[in-house]
DNA sequence: TCTTGACTTGGACACAGTCCATCGTAGGAT
DNA sequence: ATCCTACGATGGACTGTGTCCAAGTCAAGA
């Protein structure tokens, strides 16, 4: 994930081996790891990395808008590196697998003013649920 | 919430004072309490009610489809008694207030087959986010 | 009124995440 | 190349949310 590392460096981040490893672990499409999964994979490359550092680093990346925090199951939050292309999520109700999806249509235009209760609505998330091919077999 | 109590009784539920109080606490529109909030309010009427009973009762009501579990903030789950009218949620990003909303449009028809990855998609949730009137003032 | 199995209780436990004092080090200064 | 120092890493304690379990209690049918 040299892209992400470059952007972070450009923002004045001090580059440490821990941050490098966390960024590398998060590279790829359809990646939605929990903080502990990130920690486990990072520890594969850098055995002494602490949980606190992983939490700190993920939190900073989220604050910088470089990764997205997703909580689709009410359990552990998951971290999605695909922060620069708007997308929604499709979740398997059986095994929990998550895919990034791109619905057409704009939910914001589907919310009438009378249904906004005076809110200034600025964002939305859609979560689709169903059975993945493996679980419906 | 005699409605809910009636339906539960009709399903063979043993009616206890604890269950009655939990159902009563959940009565109303735009009610989205956490389990601990339900416990606190229930304890106002029935001081010895235990947390475990509140969790059990809420879990059973969810399983029966009489209330809906909502997790909009990655923190505590909230319980929504409005289970019999399809709706979505509008959440204040500042204070966390939740309102039930009814968007037009059907997100399911907005998800092309090519974007379903072989899933059998059966449900969806939309969460709108923004500032409520109090917080934007 | 009696009986019984479903329900409740409180406390221990598990998991996800945060906080903090201390130590280590990246990277600018010399 | 070395030194400095502020920023980052560490790990262990702590909090919040939720689950589990053995023992006691009670709703409701006989």
How are the elements arranged and paired?
The structure is a homodimer of 137-residue chains.
Chain A: H1 2-10, H2 17-25, E1 33-34, H3 35-45, H4 51-63, E2 68-70, E3 78-80, E4 88-92, E5 98-101, E6 120-131, H5 133-136
Parallel strand pairs in A: 4-6
Antiparallel strand pairs in A: 1-3, 2-3, 4-5
Helix pairs in contact in A: 2-3, 3-4
Chain A binds a DNA duplex (30 and 30 nucleotides) through α4.
Give an account of the 3D structure.
The structure is a homodimer of 137-residue chains. Chain A has 137 residues and is α+β, with helices and mostly antiparallel strands. The first copy, chain A, folds into two domains: 2-80, Arc Repressor Mutant, subunit A (Orthogonal Bundle); 88-136, Ferric-uptake regulator, C-terminal dimerisarion domain (Dna Ligase, domain 1), CATH 3.30.1490.190. Chain A has five helices and six strands. Chain A has helices at 2-10, 17-25, 35-45, 51-63, 133-136; strands spanning 33-34, 68-70, 78-80, 88-92, 98-101, 120-131. A three-stranded antiparallel beta sheet of chain A has the order 1-3-2. In chain A, strands 5-4-6 form a three-stranded mixed beta sheet. In chain A, helix 2 (17-25) crosses helix 3 (35-45). The model of chain A has no long low-confidence stretch (mean pLDDT 94). At the A-B interface, strand 6 of A face strand 6 of B. Chains A, B: GO terms for molecular function: DNA-binding transcription factor activity; transcription cis-regulatory region binding; zinc ion binding. Chains A, B: InterPro entries: FUR, Fur_C, WH-like_DNA-bd_sf, WH_DNA-bd_sf. Chains A, B: Belongs to the Fur family.
């Amino acid at each position: 994930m040299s892209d992400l590392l470059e952007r972070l460096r450009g923002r004045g981040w001090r580059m440490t081996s821990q941050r490098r490893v966390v960024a590398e672990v998060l590279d790829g499409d359809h990646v939605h790891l929990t903080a502990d999964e990130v920690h486990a994979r990072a520890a594969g490359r850098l055995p002494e990395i602490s949980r606190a550092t992983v939490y700190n680093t993920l939190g900073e990346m989220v604050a910088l808008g470089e990764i997205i925090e997703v909580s689709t199951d009410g359990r552990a939050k998951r971290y999605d590196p695909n922060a620069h292309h708007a997308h929604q999520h499709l979740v398997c109700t059986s095994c929990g697998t998550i895919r990034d999806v791109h619905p057409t249509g704009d939910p914001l235009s589907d919310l009438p003013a009378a249904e906004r209760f005076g809110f200034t609505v600025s964002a939305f998330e859609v979560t689709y649920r169903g059975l993945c091919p493996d679980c419906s077999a």
